[in-house]
Each structure stands twice: as C-alpha cells, then as structure tokens.
C-alpha cells in the first residue's frame, strides 16, 4: 500500500533539485523546506565506506556543536556516595546508583544521555541489551564513563552529542534546529564533518565519504556536495 504524501511535503520536495548542493545552499534550502508547525530538527545522514561488522571499521565518538543543538538535554547519572552530590550540584536531572539501575531495567528512560562512573559499570553492564540498541549505553569512548561528572554533564548540556555508525555504515546525527541561521547550522555541520574525519576507523579503506544528506525532521532530503563541505574553511569565531 502506497503511503499518501501530504501536500506540504510535496510542495517542499518540489523545491529540491536532484543534485548535490554547496553546503551553505543546502542548509538554506533545509530552512526553506522546514514548513511544519513546530521548530523542526536539522538532521545529517552520512554514508561512509565502512563495514561496522568489523571492529576496525566501527565509528563511535562524540561531537561538540559550537552553536549548541537547540534541545533541552536530560542527563541521568549512575554513581554512588559523594559523587551523587557532585552530579546533582552539576545539574544532572536524574541521579542514583543501584536504585536507578533498577528503575531503568523497569523501563524508565526519561533521559537523552546516561553517564556512569567506572566503579558502577559492572552493574550497569546488565542494562546493555536495553540501552545498547537505543544508543544510550555509557562508554569511555563516548565520554559517558568518567569520574569527571561535572565536566561531562556541562558538555552534554551545552551541545556535546554521542553518535555512531549504524550497521550499514550510515551516521545519523541531529545538529541543530531549523530556526537556527544557515550560518550557524553550517558551523555545526562543519564540526560534525571534522569529527567524522578525525575519527576515521583504522580499517576504513578506499573512499571514506560516500554521500551526505541533510533535512529538516519533517522535510525532504537534500544532498550536500561532499567536497564543498570538506574543503570549507570557516573563520574562527
């Protein structure tokens, strides 16, 4: 059964040509095609020349967006003792130890980021099957297993985001809001591109970047010219 396409989306698609746009032009078009009645999220979808079934071709890291994400990020922290007070003082929304682990096991997932101190990871490991598929499992590489709770909480609240390539080698990342200026979206997209390049897996051979598309969360996909993005030099703020 063919899904009916709304007139709003048909009109938005009509504005997008079948070509790769210069990075800034693509982002201006993203804003123009964000016609929903709410502030849509800006999304990037990057296809890489990797096969994540091999450990040396996996990509999992974090990016800090200079212009923020435009989202309110709820941070949960699993720790114990004095570290609980430290996490609360640093602005964590949910803090606990074994009690919080039990709540999460029971289905409580009212957070976007989960941070844990290393001493709690043996107990947190039991949450892997629940949190792993959702991208919420704490990991040292993702900056979410740490003793520096104040620093980690501040960074994630300010716009730091963890991401990973899915099983097909595609990275899906939210990098702002459609209400951002095109220039601010470009700064964030450039930060993402540089992070992906900087963390190229050792096993990645041949052409690393295959395609880049951006879109508003309810809008059409817009192809970005990869070279225009990678070659772009932004002035220091």
From TrEMBL:
Calcium among keywords: no
Biological process, per Gene Ontology: regulation of translation; translation
Gene3D superfamilies linked: 3.30.190.20, 3.40.50.790
A Pfam family assignment: Ribosomal_L1
SUPFAM superfamilies per UniProt: Ribosomal protein L1 (SSF56808)
Keywords from the named record: Repressor, Ribonucleoprotein, Ribosomal protein, RNA-binding, rRNA-binding, Translation regulation, tRNA-binding
Keyword field contains tRNA-binding: yes
Cellular component terms per the entry's GO annotation: large ribosomal subunit
Gene Ontology MF terms in the entry: rRNA binding; structural constituent of ribosome; tRNA binding
InterPro entries xref list: Ribosom_uL1_bac-type, Ribosomal_uL1, Ribosomal_uL1-like, Ribosomal_uL1/biogenesis, Ribosomal_uL1_3-a/b-sand, Ribosomal_uL1_CS
Family membership noted in the UniProt record: Belongs to the universal ribosomal protein uL1 family.
PANTHER family: 54S RIBOSOMAL PROTEIN L1, MITOCHONDRIAL, LARGE RIBOSOMAL SUBUNIT PROTEIN UL1M
Subunit structure of this chain's protein: Part of the 50S ribosomal subunit.
Function: Binds directly to 23S rRNA. The L1 stalk is quite mobile in the ribosome, and is involved in E site tRNA release.
Protein name: Large ribosomal subunit protein uL1
Organism, scientific name: Aphanothece hegewaldii CCALA 016
């Amino acid at each position: 059964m063919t899904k009916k396409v709304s007139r709003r989306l048909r009109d938005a698609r009509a504005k997008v040509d079948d070509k790769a746009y210069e990075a800034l032009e693509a982002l201006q078009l993203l804003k123009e095609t964000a016609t929903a009645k709410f502030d849509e999220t800006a999304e990037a979808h990057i296809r890489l020349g990797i096969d994540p079934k091999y450990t040396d071709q996996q990509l999992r890291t974090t990016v800090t967006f200079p212009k923020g994400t435009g989202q309110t990020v709820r941070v949960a922290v699993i720790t114990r003792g004095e570290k609980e007070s430290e996490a609360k003082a640093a602005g964590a929304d949910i803090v606990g130890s074994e009690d919080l682990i039990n709540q999460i096991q029971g289905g409580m997932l009212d957070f976007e980021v989960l941070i844990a101190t290393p001493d709690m990871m043996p107990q947190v490991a039991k949450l892997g099957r629940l949190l792993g598929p959702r991208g919420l499992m704490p990991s040292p590489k993702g900056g979410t297993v740490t003793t520096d709770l104040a620093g980690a909480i501040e960074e994630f609240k300010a716009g730091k985001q963890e991401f990973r390539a899915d099983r097909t080698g595609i990275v899906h990342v939210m990098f702002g809001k459609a209400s951002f200026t095109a220039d601010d979206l470009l700064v964030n997209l450039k930060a993402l591109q540089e992070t992906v390049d900087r963390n190229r897996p050792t096993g990645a051979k041949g052409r690393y970047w295959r395609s880049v598309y951006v879109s508003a969360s309810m809008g059409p996909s817009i192809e970005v010219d990869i070279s225009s993005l990678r070659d772009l030099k932004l002035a220091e703020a």
